[in-house]
Amino acid sequence: MADEQREMSKAGERGCGRCGGALVNALIPLALLVAVIVASIALTQGGNDAGDDERRAAGGDEVQADEVQAGAEDAAAERADGPIGEEEDPGGGGEADAVGERSERGEGEDAAADGEASGFGAGDDAAAERADRADLFELRMGGETFYLEKALDQETRVRGLSFRESIARDGGMIFAFPSPQPLAFVMRDCRVPIDIGFLADDGTILNMYTMRVQPRREGESDAAYERRLVRYPSARACRLVVEFQAGTFARLGVRTGDRIEGDFFPLILNADPNF
User: Fold this and answer.
1) How far apart are CA 174 and CA 235, in angstroms?
2) Which domains can be identified in the chain, with CATH numbers?
């Protein structure tokens, strides 16, 4: 009985040994398969990572290329917007600089020529103006300078500013007589109103008026016209009279008793005694 049990125990052990060996033999291929699968997965993941790295690198290169190209375009645009004659590079800016210099020289020469021509013309105008004013009488009144026509003979005194369509702002007429006397003026055939002032020999204003236009009437005779004309008399005997554009006294704030500055005695000395 004991022997049978031992035999059975040995048989069991041998059976278990065979079972264990068979299990190991069955697990080895499974382990190898798992290892192969794991290795394959690892290789696949590695390939994917490498592909991602290559794509990122390629994308970086593309971005860098785009930035380089954009930078080149910006530089080209700045050069295009720059002033003529600005140096681009050591070899390419010489002609542009030369063009800029020629342009500047040309503009300077033109400006100089214009300045010379302008100065010449201005000189001629000033000389002509001085020549025109040589026969005029210069005086100062109310801070302004006036250039008046001279009426020293009877013909010029009678004509006065008749038939004038206008009187210059700084113009007018001065009348001189050889000796003091009561004077009266009229607006015979005058077409614009006139400011008149009677002066003492030193230029002091004795009295003043603004004379209004009095045109002739149709068919009116000279005698009738003369009788109708308003007389503007001097306040007392005098030998100097000035006439200006109407409104001049008011504009300058000049009043009776104010003094007009001028060299009056040569006019008095040269006044024609025939009147």
Assistant:
1) 17
2) 136-270 (2.60.120.1140)
